[in-house]
Amino acid sequence: MKYLDEYRDADMVKRIADTIGRAVTKPWVIMEVCGGQTHSIVRYGLDRMLPKEVELAHGPGCPVCVTSLEMIDRAHAIASRSDVIFTSFGDMLRVPGTRGDLLSLKSRGADVRVVYSPLDAVRIAQSNPDKKVVFFGIGFETTAPANAMAVFQAKRAGVKNFSMLVSHVLVPPSIAAILQAPQNRVQAFLGPGHVCAVMGCGEYEALAERYRVPIAITGFEPVDLLEGVLTCVKMLEAGKSGVENHYPRVVAQKGNRPARDLIFEVFDVVDRQWRGVGSIPKSGYRLRREYRDFDAETLFEVDAIRTLESPLCISGLVLRGVKKPCDCPAFRKQCTPETPLGATMVSAEGACAAYYQYGRLAADGVEPPGSRS
């Protein structure tokens, strides 16, 4: 299949990995900042193919994983109301909050529904005028255009009983926060292809110039990812920085102009709390004043909720690239996909879930003694 089989070609993957091995002379840490990239790296064992000098660190690129605990608890508070139909994508239903997850709330009688588009939630609101319909709007810049369109269309159609709990987060500020952290080890980045398809490459060029780091924009297939690693290694070895786009079949330099225009029509940039990371300045979207009548956080007065995170969960360290999932003492014990302590074990894009699914019990793939006991 075009654009699939050719980017999974085993011989090509091996040639690129061998080229990386010949190019590297020093130890380097490269972070992929997209959860889909993390999943592919672990699934195909790409990190195991790399020379020992090259370490891939997993970043905060899973939007489900970084949705703050406060926002999850706000969603629960709203969804528990008898006058509310709460709608969400399915991957948010099992993310643990302070007092359980949305799926458990649904089992106790709350009207929680899975939708496949935010526009589905607008249609549910139109069909249920006696209910307040709320959509849980999460994600990076990739999903922001669709969520913006739902609010835009609801206002245009005069749908008064629809609102959105907005928890959008932005990738470039998270990269800056990682680079500014005292314990940072990351020296280069694999940029998020789908985010750049919407927003373009400009913000990443500014980051590369400011922090003097290489950034390779890549896709999600093995060839895409290893080409990005090779570019980062060559630039690191040469002492260079900058941005190279290895995903031109999807990413244009300036992104998708209509999608960007819609985002900035509906959303303002604000500070945002990230789960396990903390507050990052100018790292999220919130509805603009003109659309504040659709802001569920304000309408339901849930912005003062206090939360409690599991003391066993180290997902914040995993999301910042400081630890690997297998470094967590609760991994595969107290924390499993059936009994998750943190969101990184819930989402299909979460690093902990990927390590669990593909049997990665140690960073180097070697099972520690007694790991299956």
Description:
The structure is a single chain. The chain is an alpha/beta fold. The protein has 3 domains: 5-62 and 171-243, HypD, alpha/beta domain 1 (Rossmann fold, 3-Layer(aba) Sandwich), CATH 3.40.50.11750; 64-169 and 255-299, Rossmann fold (3-Layer(aba) Sandwich), CATH 3.40.50; 315-357, no CATH class. Helices cover 38% and strands 17% of the residues. It contains 16 helices and 11 strands. The protein has helices spanning 10-23, 35-44, 46-49, 63-66, 69-79, 102-107, 118-127, 144-157, 171-180, 193-199, 202-211, 222-238, 257-266, 296-299, 315-319, 351-357; strands at residues 28-32, 54-58, 84-88, 112-114, 132-139, 162-168, 188-192, 214-218, 242-245, 267-274, 278-287. The protein has a 5-stranded parallel beta sheet, sandwiched between helices. A 4-stranded parallel beta sheet has the order 4-3-5-6, sandwiched between helices. Helix 7 packs parallel to helix 8. Residues 365-373 have low confidence and may be disordered.
